[in-house]
UniProtKB/TrEMBL annotation:
The keyword Isomerase applies. Keywords: Carbohydrate metabolism, Isomerase. This is Sugar phosphate isomerase/epimerase family protein. It comes from the Bacteria. Gene3D superfamilies: Divalent-metal-dependent TIM barrel enzymes. The keyword Isomerase applies. It comes from Sinomonas terricola.
Length: 365
């Protein structure tokens, strides 16, 4: 069954709600008010900063009482990225592996068995190639992947004993090919995939081909649409509500029908629409993507061309419009419009799986 939920980090108005109510409860109550099915907490520490089992249990029970699903995350698993999370290391008294064990076991003890993780970071305060950890010069990406696999193998028995899946995100620095290889090498009994529909385009992957490739291992998700623009450095991605960007959602969702999966809408906050660049015209960028295929790269080029044509005709917001400051209610509207479109298209898919559906922005549903 496909449910429609929301990522807690982007549900901005819940953060400023009644301060007398515990934070996790505020989020699930706000999700229910919006007609959504649950909350994807990026960290189990959002349920209890100290991993208090009683606090986590209370949050899970509060969600269950109003029909809400809770998913959560733990720390990142690339040892070259973990120094950027000192709070997690502190949970283990300096022992990061112990901290991960404690988070995994605390989540599992209260029935949270699908846990998010990711491999690296994106430095939004920077621009250009080196904003992405994939292009670090102090450690090659292949070395980062090897270290990540080694650490995941240390986590595997912990995950197995807890009956938990650790779900690697298709984060902005890693390709679906690489995520799938990690899952298959360490074991799909303990690893899965958190599929982010917008991030795969940063690696110049066709989102429909990418989701089909990853579908057997997808156990959680981040869902958003994108606008694409040609820039001197390559193709820029900016976030759009589901159905208002370039992704063909009927084709995208088709391989996920039948999954027990929450489609967690990850919206926009803090005056940013998540601009990132697939630096396709940079030889260094291309050389760092040995799995890049010409058909998928050309499909991303086609999607960018189509979006720019829509923007030029006034059927979609253009580059300048999407660089204007966020409107007062835009973050909330992003979630509401995305949820409405997802529910409409899911209803169509389950009623007539072969019906020809396209994005609402194209005028056909």
């Amino acid at each position: 069954m496909l449910r429609v939920g929301v990522d807690s980090t982007k549900l901005a108005d819940a953060k400023s709600a009644d301060v007398q109510v515990e934070p996790a409860r505020r989020f699930v109550e706000r999700s229910a008010q919006l007609g959504l099915d649950g909350v994807f907490f990026r960290s189990i520490l959002e349920l209890s900063p100290t991993l208090d089992r009683g606090e986590i249990r209370d949050a899970v029970q509060a969600a269950s009482d109003i029909g809400q699903r809770i998913e959560a995350g733990v720390g990142k698993v690339n040892p070259f990225a973990t120094p950027e999370a000192p709070a997690i290391r502190a949970l283990g008294g300096g022992d990061y592996l112990l901290a991960m064990r404690r988070m995994i076991e605390a989540a599992a003890s209260e029935g949270i068995r699908e846990l998010w993780t990711a491999t690296a970071n994106y430095q939004f305060r920077l621009s250009g190639l080196y904003a992405c950890d994939r292009f670090r010069t102090d450690v090659d990406w292949d070395e980062q992947l090897a270290a990540t696999e080694k650490f995941l193998r240390k986590l595997a028995p912990i995950l197995r004993d807890a009956g938990v899946h650790l779900n690697l995100e298709t984060h902005e620095e890693i390709t679906t090919f690489e995520v799938i290889r990690l899952v298959e090498e360490v074991g799909p009994d303990v690893l899965g995939i958190t599929f982010d529909s917008a991030n795969v385009l940063v690696r110049c992957e066709d989102p429909v081909a990418a989701v089909r490739r990853a579908a057997p291992y997808i156990r959680s998700s981040h869902i958003r649409d994108v606008a694409l623009f040609f820039r001197p450095e390559g193709i820029a991605r900016l976030l759009r509500p589901v159905g208002e960007g370039v992704i063909d959602w009927a084709l995208f969702l088709e391989p996920l029908i039948g999954h027990d999966l929450m489609l967690s809408i990850e919206g926009i906050v803090e005056s940013t629409r998540g601009e990132m660049m697939a630096q396709l015209f940079d030889e260094r960028w291309r050389g760092a993507h040995p799995d890049l295929t010409l058909p998928e790269a050309l499909e991303v080029v086609r999607l960018a061309s189509d979006y720019e044509a829509r923007a030029a005709s006034g059927d979609a917001p253009g580059w300048e419009q999407l660089h204007e400051p966020l409107g007062h209610d835009e973050s909330l509207q992003f979630i509401e419009r995305s949820a409405r479109y997802l529910r409409e298209i899911l209803a169509c898919l389950t009623q007539s799986p072969t019906a020809p559906l396209r994005n609402s922005a194209s005028g056909v549903l």
